[in-house]
Amino acid sequence: MNIGQAAQASGVTAKMIRYYESIGLMPPSPRSDAGYRRYGEQDLHLLRFIRQSRRLGFGIDQIRQLLALWQDRGRSSAQVKALAQSHVDELNQRIGELVAMRDTLSHLAVHCHGDDRPDCPILEGIAAATLPTPATASTASAASMPVTSSAGGASAVASAAGAANVPVQQAAASENTTGAPSGTSGKDGDAQACHVPQG
């Protein structure tokens, strides 16, 4: 089958197939007399394996290791589990960082009046030397909120000020060791990979 048919059968775009070949993640395909790439069932299995690995968030180097283990009939499952558990730990760290970012930005947004006035806790928080924690963001914003004579209003301000205590963490950029140019998102699930072309 040609590259278009292989792309349709595997769910990996033609652009990504060429990319995987260029970095040696899959072997170069044989060519027809006319110079077109040709693919077989074994290639489809390989492409589907890569696609599923990408959907689970594995990086290119990790996929190389997974492929080597997959193709090694003498492997031990302990090696595969260790690689998977290491990736789980990385995902948990990234999830924690994303939760901290969400909580901080949510608190800044909650305490922004969102009206015609120029005062904006969101911009002030971003411009600060250190991003405030949700608790400090709430406290600072509550101090600048209009005073209300309503007991219920005061309770609402106090509740918002102490609603969360998740600390802010500086989020590490998603790892990527490929150095490949980025592209448009494709249907093979590679939008998770930074700097990997997605066609």
Mean pLDDT: 75
The helix-and-strand class reads mainly alpha
Report the biggest beta sheet as strand number plus sense, adding barrel if it closes.
Answer: none
- Gross geometry: elongated
Beta-strand percentage range:
under 5%
Amino- and carboxy-terminal Cα gap: 20 Å
Walk me through the structure:
This protein has eight helices and no strands. It has helices at residues 3-10, 14-22, 41-55, 60-71, 77-110, 121-127, 134-143, 151-161. The longest helix is centred in the middle third of the chain and has 34 residues, at 77-110. Residues 137-195 have low confidence and may be disordered.
Which structural traits does this protein have?
single chain; 8 helices
SSE layout:
Blueprint: H1 3-10, H2 14-22, H3 41-55, H4 60-71, H5 77-110, H6 121-127, H7 134-143, H8 151-161
Helix pairs in contact: 3-4, 5-7, 7-8
Short description, anyone?
With 199 residues, the chain is mainly alpha-helical. The protein has 8 helices and no strands.
